[in-house]
Write a structure and sequence with these properties.
Number of helices: 3
Shape: globular
Radius of gyration: 25 Å
Distance between the termini: 62 Å
Strand content: over 45%
Strand order of the largest sheet: 9-8-7-6-10-14-11-12-13
Structural class: mainly beta
């Protein structure tokens, strides 16, 4: 029997597998299937051989679709948040918080303190080029940008309160009277932000229009993708609007993948006081019943120096200690972190309460980590820095 080309094509389409999603792991493996579930511990894909679960800590990236370079709407604003989210928006509504309506659908509500930059008409290539160049110039404080004759003109000063009813913002220049321009008359805004979020960031979610939303928690069970941002807000996105979920942030480096310089100490007897990606007893890193594939385990007395060469912006880690090892004689152990000689973190290690470390390391050359015991004989004391990494 001879089949027509159309019939053959139909049979091929029916026979072709529906699975199209790709999951890449930290171990370099790729899994193909259809996204079924995301929880705080795993991602489940439906594959040709059945459901396959991958621990969230092992996932590098989940690719669903290809995102667009340019959003569908003819006009949009680009908003950058303090957590490095980059959102393309059709509308920005200012109130007690800022409501950002995404070009791909859905909206994100963030505190005003989360805003770093806003550029209107970001689809204009020439305007975006000027904007990128101006942001590279160092500012002493906040800036507003006025568009005149096709040119962006930055004005330095201090941004103040927003009037939700009038949709205006207070702005004060040095030596000049305070003004209150309408927000829709300002082409761009730049807020001076120095705080680093202590809430750990889990991943970056990329939608079909190229927006990037940072999340600290995810949940998906077949309907909406429920997201918790590092600012504590809840967001629900349609799965059909998503392109990928990046758990590596694209530019993340684990300290356990770097070589640290360690000064020799006669107190440590010449042995290596650090183990990478393992507990000190050789088992996987486990803090409060949660396993971490990456991290550093260190005896008291250890000192590590990392050459960052000014390439990174943040250092993050989860500080704790493994209870069953600490039972052998932990004592008081302190972990201190120095950036080019300046102490930026110091705290006691606890087996009962994990502590999130988030340090701004922008322009830092040397990151130094020191683990100190309560006295000169406290060598059995130890600390674990799970998920210790620097990111650009």
């Amino acid at each position: 029997m001879i089949r027509s080309p159309i019939a053959i094509l139909f049979l091929l389409l029916v026979a072709a597998p529906a699975w199209a999603d790709d999951l890449k792991t930290l171990a370099g493996k790729t899994l193909n299937g259809t996204l079924d579930k995301i929880s705080d511990s795993e991602i489940v894909l439906k594959t040709a051989t059945g459901p396959v679960s991958t621990p969230l800590a092992q996932v590098l990236e989940l690719t669903l679709r290809v995102s667009k370079t340019i959003p569908a709407p003819a006009n949009y604003s680009e908003v950058v948040l303090a957590d490095e989210s980059v959102l393309r928006c059709t509308k920005i509504t200012f109130g007690a918080n800022a409501r950002l309506s995404l070009t791909s659908g859905g909206s994100v509500v963030v505190p005003i303190s989360a805003l770093v930059t806003i550029l209107r008409d970001a689809q204009d290539g020439e305007l975006k080029k000027q904007w990128t160049k101006l942001l590279k110039t160092k500012a002493r404080g906040d800036r507003i940008f006025i568009l005149r004759g096709g040119d962006l003109n930055p004005v330095e000063g201090s941004l103040g309160d927003i009037d939700p009813a009038k949709q205006t913002i207070k702005f004060k220049r040095d030596g000049a009277a305070e003004i209150e321009p309408a927000l829709d008359k300002i082409q761009g805004l730049q807020f001076s932000r120095t705080d680093v979020l202590s809430e750990p960031s889990l991943c970056k979610i990329v939608d079909l229009d190229g927006s990037v939303l940072v999340a600290s928690k995810l949940d998906y069970s077949g309907k909406h993708l429920s997201i918790t941002t590092p600012f504590g807000q809840k967001v629900a996105l349609e799965p059909t609007t998503l392109a990928s979920i990046d758990f590596n942030f694209g530019r993340l480096t684990y300290l356990s993948d770097l070589d640290a310089k360690m000064p020799e100490s006669f107190l440590l007897g010449g042995f290596n006081p650090v183990r990478k990606d393992l507990n000190l007893n050789g088992d996987a890193i486990m803090l409060q019943e949660k396993e971490y594939p990456k991290g550093l385990s260190m005896y008291a007395g250890a000192e590590l120096n990392y050459d960052l060469a000014g390439k990174y912006r943040e250092f993050k880690a989860i500080l704790g200690a493994v209870a069953r090892i600490a039972e052998e004689g932990q004592g008081k152990v302190t972990v201190s972190v120095y950036c080019d000689g300046e102490k930026r973190f110091s705290d006691l290690v606890s087996t009962k309460a994990l502590k999130n470390i988030a340090i701004n390391v922008k322009d830092v050359t040397t990151l130094r980590i020191v683990v100190s015991g309560s006295n000169f004989t406290n060598f059995s004391g130890h600390a674990t820095l799970a998920n210790a990494h620097v990111s650009q």
